[in-house]
């Protein structure tokens, strides 16, 4: 019997084509945006942004699914800047 794929603890999010293009542009331009778990026991994440070796962390923390939305929001922000 095949194993079922485990649901991500961060929830599911389907990025739009614009969001995917913005993410690819950011990676090509050395802008990395990623979720950073607040603690082992909590399902809450910060967004960590690294631009040319300098790292910054979002002031707010986000729950399931919202963390993905915020991550792509940052990608779009830098892409459109």
Written overview of the protein:
33% of the residues lie in helices and 28% in strands. The chain has a domain at 30-80. The protein is an alpha+beta fold and 81 residues long. The N and C termini lie far apart (50 Å). 16% of the residues are buried. A three-stranded antiparallel beta sheet has the order 1-2-3, with helices on one face. Helix 1 (17-28) packs across helix 2.
Entry keywords:
81 residues, single chain
As a whole number of angstroms, the C-alpha radius of gyration is 14 Å
Strand order of the largest sheet: 1-2-3
The secondary-structure class comes to: alpha+beta
What characterizes the major β-sheet? 3 strands, antiparallel
* SSE string, helices as H and strands as E: HEEEH
Q: What gap, in angstroms, lies between the N and C termini?
A: 50 Å
Proportion of residues in β-strands: 25-35%
Tertiary shape = globular
Q: Which stretches are poorly predicted, pLDDT < 50 over at least 5 residues? A: none
Number of strand segments: 3
Q: What helical percentage do the residues reach?
A: 25-40%
- Average residue-wise pLDDT: 90
- Number of distinct helices: 2
How would the blueprint of this fold be written?
Blueprint: H1 17-28, E1 31-39, E2 42-51, E3 54-57, H2 66-80
Helix pairs in contact: 1-2
In short:
The chain is of the alpha+beta class and 81 residues long.
């Amino acid at each position: 019997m095949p194993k079922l794929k485990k649901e991500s603890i961060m929830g599911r999010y389907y990025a739009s084509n614009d969001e995917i293009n913005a993410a690819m542009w950011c990676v090509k331009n050395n802008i990395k945006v990623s979720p950073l778990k607040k603690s082992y026991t909590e399902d809450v994440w910060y967004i960590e942004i690294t631009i040319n070796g300098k790292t910054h962390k979002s002031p707010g923390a986000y729950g399931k699914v919202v963390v993905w939305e915020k991550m792509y929001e940052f990608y779009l922000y830098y892409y459109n800047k």
